[in-house]
Design brief:
Layout lengths: L2 H13 L10 E4 L5 E6 L4 E7 L7 E5 H9 L7 H20 L2 H4 L3 H18 L10 H12 L5 H24 L3
Antiparallel strand pairs: 1-2, 2-3, 3-4
């Protein structure tokens, strides 16, 4: 272990609150950036310090029992009818939103919206299984695909798409499935 790692480990250990002698920490350091330092205590709590420049303010806390239960949870499969309905709402909103920005999109609005809708629909049909499964990857793909095709406003379209999705998809899923 290098001197920087030892110094960081020493300063990190002394920044933790004191624990009883029965709770002896077992530190583990991830060798790959971003830095990750975890301590597991006998009382089933884990403390993790992460980031490029770790500081005590980046300390996170989780119960091992909660993590185990979350790992056992199975998300529902995608619902094709929900995906179709949500895709139609998404298309309508995005077309309306991007059409207001003629200075950015000009005559490319339909093509930009088509790319976004295709990627969003594919995600909803293949991967979305309710709250907790909305991923950022399709929206990154939207911006990248629009830019790769030489169309204007990739980042703006992706931002509008992700904003709509975060505001509506999980809520609409709950209404569709009747869950709380």
């Amino acid at each position: 272990m290098g001197s920087l790692s030892k110094a960081l480990l020493f300063s990190t250990l002394h920044s933790f609150p004191s624990f009883s002698s029965s709770s002896s920490p077992t530190p583990s350091i991830s060798p790959c950036p971003p830095f990750s330092l975890s301590f597991a205590f006998k009382n089933s709590f884990t403390y993790t310090l992460t980031g490029k420049n770790p500081a005590p303010s980046l300390l996170s806390f989780s119960s091992a029992n909660f993590v185990c239960k979350a790992a056992e949870y199975k998300f529902p499969d995608p619902i094709p009818e929900f995906a179709d309905s949500e895709t139609d709402k998404f298309r309508s909103h995005l077309l309306k939103k991007l059409s207001k920005k003629e200075d950015i999109y000009g005559d490319s609005v339909e093509e930009v919206v088509g790319i976004c809708v295709e990627l969003f629909s594919t995600f909803l049909h293949a991967e979305y299984g309710g709250p907790g499964t909305l991923l950022v990857i399709p929206f990154i793909d939207m911006a990248d695909t629009i830019n790769e095709r030489g169309l204007p406003g990739g980042p703006e379209a992706a931002r509008a798409a992700v904003k709509w999705a975060t505001d509506h998809v999980d809520k609409d899923w709950k209404e569709w499935t009747g869950t709380d």
